[in-house]
Design goal:
The complex is a heterodimer of chains A (222) and B (218). Chain A is mainly α and 222 residues long. Helix content of chain A is 79%, strand content 0%. The model of chain B has no long low-confidence stretch (mean pLDDT 92). The chains are: A mainly alpha (222), B mainly alpha (218).
Chain lengths: 222, 218
Amino acid sequence: MEIIVEYFPLLLKGAWLTVQLTVTSAVIALVISFVIGLSRLSRHWWVRALATIYLEFFRGTSALVQMFFMFYVLPLLGVTLSPFLAGVIACGFNLGSYGSEVVRGAIQSIGKGQREAAHSLNYTTYQRYRYVLIPQAIPMMIPPFGNLLIELMKLTAVTSLITLSDLTFVAQIIRGQTAMTLEPFLIILVMYFAIASVLVGFTDWVASSIAKRRGMVPVKVN
Amino acid sequence: MHWDWAVAADVLPRLLAGLMVTVQATFVGAILAYALGLGLAILKMSHSHPVRFVFYWLSEFIRRTPLLVQLYFLFYVLPDLGIFLSPFLAGVIGLGLHFATYTSEVFRAGIENVPKGQWEAARSLNYTRAQTWTRVILPQAIPPMIPPLANYLITMFKETPLLAAITVVELFNAANIYSNSFYKYLEPMTLVGALFLLVSIPSAYAAIWLERKYARQH
């Protein structure tokens, strides 16, 4: 028990890095979700094709392979990324591909009448998306985005394999130094669960506050 | 850094051997995930409140924590408790258990989406419990489950590289071992990515085809 107390600051530091990794890569993933998701709806075939290639590449290969590629292979091609940068780019690019399908699906599910109404009001394409389609699609995106956020948080554990000292890495350090196995892994499992539960609560809060502002019934996440 | 075909040719047989392990782990893990998921779904729909509560939160706990840590747990903690598993076995159990929490939701939704009238009709026709399940409920519940279950198979395939962390020599680890022995990183890792795409893109289109096929019937 006293060993755990001794290592607790290290565990907290690991948890803080996990949170930083999650938040940073979530921002990257969110931007990519919209860029790729909207590009998939473009009227130019080559924009759609590029977005589809991106999507199939990042959704079709394993996140761990992408991360190792960025960390070990890119330096050979002259691009050197810090472990943190390689980690958040791999996590963000990977989850961004899944998120782009959420964005595309939600926008495509908006009724035809809304598009026609925008046309008949002579809206430009930008106005149609900005004022008609995206605002209506956002509430539908929140629950699947919440699930992806949990996936993203879990994916950050993999960054321990590219030398980042996140929670998982700290548990391995404790295991190496004390030969204890049950305690460190059990503790970090509970810590991951706590972080994930905060993220679930956050998603519920976002969903309900959007719904409240618009006077609708919120879509429950779980 | 230039692409060296000799290195590629040298590493490819090892990667294909690794791919075999990856495919085996995927299928064994998936069978476990489907079986455990069905059990978990039934428990989560139990009439007893405590049973529902315990299995709901157990499932959420597994779902909200990383597979990698769960694999470490199975690999490092169980031997201390006197349970010795081979890395492959620990890996597929981890995969199966983790994805059972996802498939259980597919089973639950599939069963709950059968309209209540179907249960009542089976009752009024005096069907036994077994007949109700095998003749009425499951034939209607299973087809819509197939596309999402197939999608989880593809997801599990892409998660298998995590098994490398507990020393299973699957596709990714085969490349990694080669890279570390010969200091060649470009060809092995690129080929691993290419092999993943080669399997997962056709599988994804097969899953879309399944989805269309079963969507048409409903």
